[in-house]
Amino acid sequence: MYLPKSFHETRIDVLHALIHDYPFGTVVMHTSDGLVANHLPFELAGDTLLQGHVACGNELAKADGAQVLVMFQAADGYISPNWYPSKHETGREVPTWNYAVVHVHGRLRVIEDKVWLRGFLERLTDRHEAAQPMPWHVNDAPEDHIEKMLKAIVGLEITIDRIEGKFKLSQNHRDANRAGVIKGLGERAGLRDDELTELMQQAEGRRNG
């Protein structure tokens, strides 16, 4: 990943927070047929592991020991040069795109232990059901149905060898331009613009804190 110094994020707590808030990752792996990509929800277990699951028919289910890249992406959005005060002063600005991503490089382990798998699915489901008025739990399904589903999937565990983040949030611009971008995003109020604004404000807070 191209990582200009202005956008290189190395703080582990910040990188982990993005994975927690945006857990739907893209797993890229090299196979005999070339590169393949799969899209999966993950849980971060401690500081060194990603955990997930796939159907038995997925190529990842047969890739024990493979080196993989997992990409997590937060909100992103187009940035108009009209939002920069400097554009109105000099005209020397161009459009760009703001975003935040985390790349995890590691080795895949396939897990067929049904006890491990059920425990993982319970944790994953409980987390994402927590905001529901009446949360669904794995045990709400008939036991024979659960057993059938468990036979159709395997667990995945990725040991994190390297983690890197790119937070391109107008850090290479002066304060007035960054404020202009935040104002512009607020006025546009498009899909995920509020999330991108929050990311920029968090970055500002870390800069000033």
Automatic annotation (TrEMBL):
What start-end ranges are recorded for coiled-coil regions in this protein? none
Q: Which Gene3D superfamilies match?
A: Electron Transport, Fmn-binding Protein, Chain A
Which superkingdom heads the taxonomic lineage of this protein's source?
Answer: Bacteria
* InterPro entries referenced in this protein's UniProt entry, alphabetically: Split_barrel_FMN-bd, TR_PAI2-type
For this entry, the protein name equals FMN-binding negative transcriptional regulator
| Originating species | Dyella caseinilytica
